[in-house]
Amino acid sequence: MSESLVVPTMAEMLAEGKQPEVLFWVGCAGSFDDRAKKITKAFVRILNRTNVSFAVLGTEESCTGDPAKRAGNEFLFQMQAMMNIEVLNAYEAKKIVTACPHCFNTLKNEYPELGGQYDVIHHTEFLKSLIDEGRLTVEGGQFKGKKITFHDPCYLGRANKVYEAPRDLIQKLDVELVEMKRSKANGLCCGAGGAQMFKDAEPGNKEVNVLRTEDALEVQPDIIAAGCPFCNTMLTDGIKHQEKEGQVKVMDIAELIANAQDF
Amino acid sequence: MSYLDNILFAILLIAGFGFFASSVKKIIRNIKLGVDVDRKDNPKARWANMALIALGQSKMVKRPVAGVLHIVVYVGFIIINIELLEIIIDGLFGTHRIFAPYLGVVYDVLIASFEILAILVIFAVTVFWIRRNGIRLKRFIHSDLKGFPKSDANYILYFETVLMILFLLMNASDLHLQNVPGGVFHKAGTFPVSQFIAPIFNGLSNELVVLLFEIFWWVHIVGILVFMNYLYFSKHLHILLAFPNTYFADLNSKGKFDNLESVTKEVKLMMDPNADPFAAAPVDENAAPGKFGASDVQDLNWVQLLNAYTCTECGRCTSACPANQTGKKLSPRKIMMDTRDRLQEVGKNIDTNKGVFVPDNKTLLNDYITPEELWACTSCNACVEECPVNISPLSIIMDMRRYLVMEQSAAPMSLNAMMTNIENNGAPWQYSQQDRLNWKNEN
Lengths: 263, 443
Ligand code: SF4
Ligand code: SF4
Prior knowledge:
The structure holds 2 protein chains of 2 kinds.
Chain A: H1 10-15, E1 22-25, H2 27-32, H3 34-49, E2 54-55, H4 66-71, H5 74-90, E3 95-98, H6 101-110, E4 119-122, H7 123-132, E5 147-150, H8 164-171, E6 176-178, H9 208-218, E7 223-226, H10 229-241, E8 249-252, H11 253-260
Parallel strand pairs in A: 1-2, 1-3, 3-4, 5-6, 5-7, 7-8
Chain B: H1 3-31, H2 43-55, H3 64-93, H4 100-103, H5 105-134, H6 148-179, H7 206-230, H8 238-248, H9 261-271, H10 302-310, H11 316-320, H12 322-325, H13 332-352, H14 364-367, H15 371-375, H16 382-386, H17 393-407, H18 413-425
Helix pairs in contact in B: 1-3, 1-7, 1-13, 2-8, 3-5, 5-6, 6-7, 8-10, 10-13, 13-17
């Protein structure tokens, strides 16, 4: 597992006079959150193994401003956006891949009006394209025959209609993909969006992540697959709440693909 | 019929349509209280949306029982209105079944299909009534619908039933009069349903049946005029507004929240290294007094206000809302109902004050919608996805959050901390931007 990661930065690339095929936008969760960092590394492992030329912004990356905008702070959002756009445009970034649906949505839909036009793709779409182009082959490995259910992140699914790429990838693993009663356009939020991740929930009779975890547990999966670091945290907490850590794991699709080949 | 009848009918018609026109004018005036937003782009996609969603009811059938029954009532409503044209001409000119001689067999087919639709509508409406009052579906017994909204829904169901029954009784008595020896009415139409009702008139004198026919005919047309004018007070305005509402709906990806231009200007100024930080802000003559976000209906845009009038109070949004399902106070349907109620109140205020709004110390925020409701939203778009007429409760929630945050600095404490972190460290958590790549070397 301890293969060392090669993670060039845009600055290093520029110094060598090179432009990577894609810019990997890591995001705040992917950079700082202990659980999400594992997703980041899994994705980089795949990029390294498939020799994809990529680079990160590293210390030049900053929050996209998504949580600020959803919280209603348009000022802060636009300041973040304009600073990021300045950096991205300076590097002449064209294609951006990210493992965070919130970064994905903001970069793709909300940056263009502020002067940032990029071809933005979610990492599941990118991995799918690598497979389609024959650059990545996936086998079930340790996941073969396992029962997996996929939780649609709101900002990937409903917000941007990406439903198939993550499912196609899961299916490549020779597993049994089971759908929850609410999925795709009808999927239920994990409870983290709209800046909820950063505050206590309003009084109610249940937490949203617990309700969503119940949806998932109903189909009795071995693994709940996610495509968002925030969903991942919420569902992991939900599993803990139900005391099911022993039986059910929450994993990002990048981790599934990267780990399938490990043993 | 004597001339008196015709004149009375004409007066009724003019009054009915007159009142209706004045309500429509009021609605348009109120909607125009909203801020302007451009929704004229891409007419092709807009027409397609309208055809598919309003006319084709594509989003209704996501819930098949309600969807199919709704289509029956809707088709019934539209088609039976063709009959209305004949009724109006007959009423104005004292004729009887004026179209029959011209349309021949087509007329028979038309009348027959109206009758079948009428009976289907009665069936559908009965099921709707049972769903609301008998089996008590959760979204219909929700606290949003206490009082008028609950009766409103039932009134309409009664109205529709009575209108359909009158239509069938009218036809049945007509048929009876066509068939009595000597034929009081000329033969016209086929009556697959009311032929079974006609026998109830057997044994009555022709004069009495003619009188009954006239009563059915008059009550039916008066009923339709009353129904039409009731729309203004009712969620049933959606039968008209669903069309413009789907036409003007947002075409962007659901995740794209609108960009506040006014903020863009200021941020650009702030970030421009050449700008003189001490210079007074340039005065824009046309600029509206700067207010970020929305605290009242006039701060919302006209599409959001049109949304409020269009909402059918079906509650599909609320039943899909994660916050609502976990017992939080937020109900997207209530957001729409509150917006409409407040807009009606502001409209009345303007009417009583000769065309100007006199501040009433109330706002949509706080008096109708509380911050607690607004902060419970996860911006998941489930409500937007569910709405059968493409309403976005989320866009109103977001505009009100913007007001809370940018005008009142009234975000929950934890969100303030998150925003300070973004400002200082470029991340919602308290980590230094310099540590962004540390993961690379960690195990
Ligand atoms: S966007 Fe907000 S109001 Fe709409 S369903 Fe999601 S949480 Fe509820
Ligand atoms: S907003 Fe749409 S889904 Fe919600 S109650 Fe109104 S019409 Fe129904």
